[in-house]
Structures are given as C-alpha cells and as structure tokens.
Amino acid sequence: MNVWVQGRPVGTYPTGPPEVGRGSMRRITEVGEEILRTPCREVAAAEFGTPELAALIDDMFLAMHIAEGAGLAANQVGVDLRLFVFDCLDGLGGRHVGHIANPVLDVPGPAGRRLVEDVEGCLSVPGASAVVPRTAHAVVRGFDKDGAPLVIAGDDYFARCLQHETDHLAGTVYLDRLSKRNRKDALRQMEDRREGVFERREMRAAKLRQRTVTGD
C-alpha cells in the first residue's frame, strides 16, 4: 500500500500512528451540541509550535482511532479550533495520515467539479450513514502544527474526507447536505444504533488501556 504522511510519500508507516500512543482520552461530541454548529476560530500564530497544540493533535488521533474514523475535527472533541486530523484510505490503494490547521478548501476548476455520490458517515452522528455528493478531487491548504505551510490533495474517498472535515470547521455537518427526508432517516439510524456504537468504542478504549498497562 502507498502511504502519504502530511501529503508526502513515505516508505513504511505503522498501522497505529505514533500520535495514538501519546494521546489522552477525549469524548467525541454529538450532533445537537452547539460547538458543532459554530464556525471554529483560526489557530493563532502564537499557538503554533506549542506543546498544547501537539498534545491536542495526539488526543484527536487517539479519539479517531478508538472510534474507527477516517478523520476528526477539533470541535468534535470540544475544542474551538480550525484543525483536523486524518488517517484515511482513499479507495485507490493509498493511505493518507496527518493533520492540518487553518485549512482552506480550494475551489476546483471545471475538470474537478464532477460530483460523486457515495455513502458517508460521521463520528458525531454515531451509527448513521447517507449518500452525499462530493467532488472527486479536493485540495486543502493550511499549516502543520509548527506553522509550516501545508498542501494536502486527495482523490476518491480521501477527497470526501477532506471536504467533510473542512465542513466541520465551518459549523456544518453532513446532515446539512441531505434532503429533509434523508436527514430524518439518518437521525433515526443514529437513534437505533448509537448505543451499540458507544459499546464498541468503549471496548476498543478498554483494550487500548490494557495494552498500555501490560506493555503489549
């Protein structure tokens, strides 16, 4: 499998990103909470390169890993910052791992505006999924945790991930892109399945804690 870390190809990379081992447990917010509906503030210049920002990224990777997600925005762990992390398969034989602060989604040219309809879910809408149209290619421009400029490009499912997470930082969830009927259906799915999702997350968290204690 081809792997890109922070948009650059690497030879090998562990299944569990190093950030996961350094992170602390954080709760994932759910749809209906105000922080998911409010545009996030930009990461300030003084915040780049700080231990606090690095620790937040580690915590977000851990939360994403426990919840078996492909991406996670800062407001999904209750933090009002324009920041998201990702560990996403693109559906084309590639894996993309990294983070980006203050991302801006490029407006695609005519060739990149082709919409693809595919199933999408969200860690903040546990247990639900729906078909959402997204462009087949996406580019986000922003900065890494130390303030260095960063460009992340993606195709297929990773393009969907980049668009989904950038939406979160604007206070938008994928439910907002659905018809009224499909949104109601997704919320019914969440009501029916959320407890099972939480049980699986708790089991994964418990296994991770056990591995930490035993050193496995």
Give keywords.
216 residues, alpha+beta, Peptide Deformylase, 7-stranded mixed beta sheet, two-stranded antiparallel ribbon, 4 helices
Describe the structure.
The model has no long low-confidence stretch (mean pLDDT 94). The protein starts with a strand and ends with a helix. It is built from four helices and nine strands, in the order ββααβββββββαα. The protein has helices at residues 18-22, 51-66, 156-169, 180-214; strands spanning 2-5, 8-10, 71-73, 83-89, 94-105, 115-121, 129-135, 137-143, 149-155. It has 216 residues and is an alpha+beta fold. Strands 1, 2, 3, 4, 5, 8 and 9 form a seven-stranded mixed beta sheet that branches. Strands 6-7 form a two-stranded antiparallel sheet. It has one domain (2-214): Peptide deformylase (Peptide Deformylase).
Summarize the structure.
By secondary structure, this protein is of the alpha+beta class.
Biggest sheet, in brief?
7 strands, mixed
Question: So how many helices?
Answer: 4
In whole angstroms, the N-to-C terminal distance is: 25 Å
The overall average pLDDT, rounded, is: 94
Q: Specify the helix fraction band.
A: 25-40%
What's the CATH H-level homologous superfamily? Answer: Peptide deformylase
Strand fraction = 25-35%
CATH topology: Peptide Deformylase
Series of secondary-structure elements, N-terminal to C-terminal? EEHHEEEEEEEHH
Based on DSSP secondary structure assignment, what is the total number of beta strands? 9
Secondary structure: elements and pairs:
Elements: E1 2-5, E2 8-10, H1 18-22, H2 51-66, E3 71-73, E4 83-89, E5 94-105, E6 115-121, E7 129-135, E8 137-143, E9 149-155, H3 156-169, H4 180-214
Parallel strand pairs: 1-5
Antiparallel strand pairs: 1-2, 3-4, 4-5, 5-8, 6-7, 8-9
